[in-house]
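Q: What would this chain look like folded?
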Amino acid sequence: MAFYKIEDLTFTYPNCASPALSNVSFEAREGDFLLLIGRSGCGKSTLLRHMKTSLAPHGNMTGRVLINGRPLGETSERDQAMKIGFVFQHPDDQIVTDKVWHELAFGLESIGADTKTMRIKIAEMASYFGLDEVFYKNVSELSGGQKQLLNLASVMALSPEVLIMDEPTSQLDPIAASEFLSTVKKLNTELGITVIISEHRLEEAMPLADRVLVLDEGRLVCEGKPRQVAGKLCRSNSPLAGAMPTAARIFCGIGAEGLPALTVNEGRRLLNSLGLEKKLLPSAERKARDEAPAIKAEGLMFRYEKDGDDVLKGLDVSLHSGEIYGLVGGNGAGKSTLLKLLSGAAVPYRGRLTVGAEKLKGRFSAFEKRIGCLYQDPRTLFSKDTVWEDLESAAFNRDPATAKARIDEAVRLMDIESCLSKHPFDLSGGEQQRAAAAKVLLTEPNILLLDEPTKGMDASIKEVFGEKLRKLAEKGIAILLVSHDIEFCAEYADTVGFMFDGRIDSENAAREFFCENVFYTTAANRIARDVYKNALLEKEVTALALGGER
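A: My prediction, written as structure tokens:
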């Protein structure tokens, strides 16, 4: 019998003309690993929230959600809390206490577990998830990856039968994301826990799934095993084709027949079996940096508390006009902190910050210095009741005469026309990200600071956004792109730096930078490096394999 059964689920939000979900039906059997994919705003989060009563959104719903053959509403809140574990997209949205061990205990306390049971469960979860070293730390001291592991451990302390996760790796670095998904798969295979997860990061997630469900504008348009779905989407030129694992896109791109490869290892075997001539792509010349930097940091030192540890430790970086500078590194390395200092939101206790020829001291207004900043949590940018009003305030503050035209352009660019009348907090994570990016672009900055801008964006929106960044750079705007999206940085950044332990440890032109790395590189490079050592993108590998230059 199906553990979950969704029957003709249709749901419409208040004051919306069209439904967010339309006649969605599927089953999740006990022990399944289901992957839910689709473009940003297609209804993934709405669907997942209907699978736990306390999280179901307000609106008009028809159809049924069954658990173990019974309507979900007939299962008590307490039983749902124990049976159904839910992990959110933003780690901080789920944490409710101050200490790691408090957080592990919170769910158990809420259901009235006795002290002995709590001690056993907390010790087991801390040990299994590697949280014993941070057991007594403040939650605020944890990295994004550690917070998400803590959320998972807290949910698992209740021994749920199903784990529902809404883009849980969106704020994790590539290594942390891979480890997190591996842990989830281990829970699925070793404990038999049913997993239902939505993801945009399909390189790691798709090979782990038993079945893949594809949503498009609220409708379930495709369902099947991962290889079947990947082959269908790649060969039909679907908007989701660009999100498929690189090995599958190369497989279909070169015209190979049958079910596509999914993993790096399978992609490597495919290329090596073709007997291709080894080639090197020409290195891109690093952009000239003779002119003075648009913004320059020298020896920045920063800590959040007077007696705390330094987060930035003598950091140096220069950002030039017309340059897209990609900054990568693990969670907790200090990347987001650096953006706070560069935007004037925080002040270093030592070091020098220069914007153009002006040396800055203390706090300053980013708007007055024409610095636009998109922080990691896009919700911090919203202050109005509708998306339109937020965009309008940004556009009119900069140039009222051209405001309407620039808003229309930003709306088209970020594909947020359907969001304009909604409250920003009612949007999905991906829609919030796109709306926030549009608002920042409307301020027409000379320096653009972006913290995880592609988080929650589907492949087609990423491509449009990346081309927009290139056009802005061509106009002389300096862009700092902090990102865990290695493929995006590889395609659109001119220069890439690696941040570790509060400093930028290495810096190089994008192709040279990524080809030097083992983990911080693209899947295409890992697949092709035996044949095309310095290829970075799937389209380069495919073109070369077909006999072209790239």
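The two ends are 50 Å apart (CA to CA).
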